[in-house]
Amino acid sequence: MRARRHATVAAALLASAVLAIPAQPPTWTLLGFTLPLTKRDFRVFNNFSDPQANDNAVADPNFPGATGAVMAIWKAAVEWGSRRHGPGGAGDPTQGALGGNPLFGTPGQPEALANFDFTYQGLAASPGGFDDSIVSVTQTPLGPGVLAITLSPDAGGCMILFDDTQWVWEDGPGAIACTGTSVDIQGVAAHQLGHALGLGHTFVLGATMQPTIDCAGSIARRSIEAPDVGGVRAAYGDASLPSSTKPVVTGIAGTFSLGGVIAVAGMNFDPAANEVWFTSENGGPPRIVGAIPSIGGGTQISLTIPMDAPLPRSGDLLVRVPGTGHDRLSNAWPIDVPPPPSLPPTLLSVSPSPVDLVALPQPVLTLTGSNLSQVTSVAIGPATVTPPYLVQSPGVIQLALPILPLVGPVGVQVANPFGTSSAVALTVEPATPPVLLTQPPIGGTGVPFTAEMYTVPGDLVVLAFSPSNLPSAVPGLVSLGLGNGFALLFTFPPLVASPMNGAAPVSFLIPPGGAGYTVYWQFVSIPPTLVPPFPASNLTSIFLFF
User: Fold this and answer.
1) Distance between CA 280 and CA 312 in Å, rounded?
2) Does domain 346-429 have CATH number 2.60.40.10?
3) Model pTM greater than 0.70?
4) Assigned architecture for domain 5-236
5) Which of 287, 307, 310 lies closest to 389 in space, CA to CA?
6) Residue 417, Cβ density class (10 Å: 0-12 exposed, 13-18 middle, ≥19 buried)
7) 248-335 has which fold?
C-alpha cells in the first residue's frame, strides 16, 4: 500500500475562511457560503488524456448520454443529491445506490438527505473561469501529492482541476488496485464537489471530505459518509424531516424526444407556477420551462419538451417551485432526450395539391418526410415561411399556405441547419370561388380601409358596398348578399385581377358621415368571355364607430 497522499485541497485563498461547526469533536467544516438555486449546475470539459479515464464505454440509463470520465463525475455529483438518482439509484456496481442516504433518513422519507441537488449541464468547450463550475484536467502540476483542487469556491461557482501530470485517472466502474499511480475519478470528484457546494475538510477517517486517502486507487471515497451528511445538512437543511416541503420527483413518463409530451410525477409541486429544468444543449445554464400548473394535489406536471434553442438534451430534469430557499428545487431525475438528427431534411409529399391560393378558411399544408423536427424554413415558390409550425412528429409538419404572388405549379422545399431538401411540386390554383379580405372590422372617419380581392387572373372585378345586407339578385346573372334589391347598392370602378395571381387591391381613408352604420362589402368577378352567371365573393362588413 502506498503512503497516504494528499487527495485534494480547496483554494488557498479560502483556506483561512474555513468555519468550524461547533461540535465535540467537530465532524465537518463549512467554507462560509451556500450555493443559490441558480448556481447548482456543473459541466465537464473532458480533456482527460489517460485512456483509462474514458474506457468505460457502457452507457447507463440513469446517466443518459454520458460515458467515461463524464459519467464518473456525474455519479460523484448525484451522491450529494437529496434523493436516489433515477429508479433505485442504479448505475454503480460498487455501491448499493447513488444519491440520498437511507442510513440517515427518517420514517416516511427514508432516502432524503439535504435540500441540495447538483444539476448536470453536459459538456463544456473549455475549462472556463473561476465561476463557471466546470470540471477538467490541467497539465500544470498542482504540487507534490496533490490530486485535484477546487479553485475559488464561493456562492458564484468554482473551477475544479485534476492534476494530469502525476496520476493516471481511472473512470472505473470497478475497484482499482492500490498500486502504481492510478486514481479513481469518481471518488476524487465527490470530494471536490463537496468543496463546490461549500464544505471544508474533515479529519474523520473514511469521510469523503477527509483531505487524504490511504490508497490512491481506492474507490471508498465515492459514497458520502455520516460527517459528509452532517455537513451538507448543516449548510442546506435536512430534507428528511417530515415537515419538508422540498419538491420531489419520483418518476417521468411519456415521449422523451424534442416536442414530446411528458408527465412528471412527485409531490410538493406548486399549484400553478412550477419550472422544469433540463440539461441544455449548449453547456450553459439549465433550459427552463415554466410556469406550469400541477394536478393531483401537487403530484403531477405535464409539459412538452421544447424544440426551440437552447434545446434540452439528455441529462437531468428538476422541478423548481416559487421562492429562493434551499428547499425550492427538487432532486435531479435522469431523462434521455435524444438530439435532433444531424441530417438534412427529406421532403416526400405536400398535401393537399392542388390547393386554392386563397380560401376561407385559409388552406393548411401537410408536409411529410424525415428529419423535419428542426426545420427552420419552408420555401413555397418565391415565398419563405418561418416557424412556428405545427410539428406532429419528426416526419410531419403543418403550416398555413401564404398568399403567393403567382398561381400555377411551384416547388416546396424545407431546410434545417444541416441542409435543404429537394423540391416537391405543389399546384396552386386561383381563388375559386372568389375571396374578399377586408380590414379593419371596426373603423371610423380617416381610418385606412383595405379590400383585397382574389379571383381568376384577368377577370374583371367590381367591388360593391351597401348599408344593407338584404340581397340583390338577377337570376342567371348574379346573386349578391347586399344592396336590398339594388336600391342601396354602390360600386367602385371595375379593376382587372392580376394576371399573376388574380389579386385586385383597393385601399382608401374612410370619409366622414357614416358613424353608427355597418357597411357591407362584396365583389363580383366577370370573366373576359362575359359568360354568366358571374360568381360573387364572400360578404364582409365594417362597423363605423365614429
Assistant:
1) 5
2) yes
3) no
4) 3-Layer(aba) Sandwich (3.40)
5) 307
6) exposed
7) Immunoglobulin-like (2.60.40)
Distance from C-alpha of 83 to C-alpha of 318, rounded to nearest angstrom: 12
| Lookup result for grid cell 422541478 | 319
Of the candidates 348, 388, 345, the one whose C-alpha atom is nearest the C-alpha of residue 259 is 388
Determine the distance from the C-alpha atom of residue 289 to the mean position of all C-alpha atoms in its chain, rounded to a whole number: 7
Q: Which regions of the chain carry the CATH code 3.40.390.10?
A: 5-236
Q: Where in the chain is the domain with CATH 2.60.40.10?
A: 346-429
Q: How do the pLDDT tens digits run along the chain, 546 residues long? A: 122 333 333 333 232 223 333 444 558 999 999 999 999 999 999 999 999 999 998 889 999 999 999 999 999 999 999 999 999 888 888 887 888 865 544 444 456 789 999 999 999 989 999 999 999 999 999 999 899 999 999 999 999 999 999 999 998 766 666 667 789 999 999 999 999 999 999 988 889 999 987 765 678 788 888 899 999 999 999 998 888 899 999 999 999 988 899 999 999 999 999 999 999 877 778 999 989 999 999 999 999 998 776 789 999 999 999 999 999 999 999 999 988 777 889 999 999 999 999 999 988 999 999 888 788 899 999 999 988 888 777 789 999 999 999 999 999 999 988 899 999 999 999 999 999 999 999 999 999 999 999 999 999 999 999 999 999 999 999 999 999 999 999 999 999 999 999 999 999 999 998 899 999 999 999 999 999 999 999 999 999 998
Q: How far is C-alpha 456 from the chain's CA centre?
A: 45
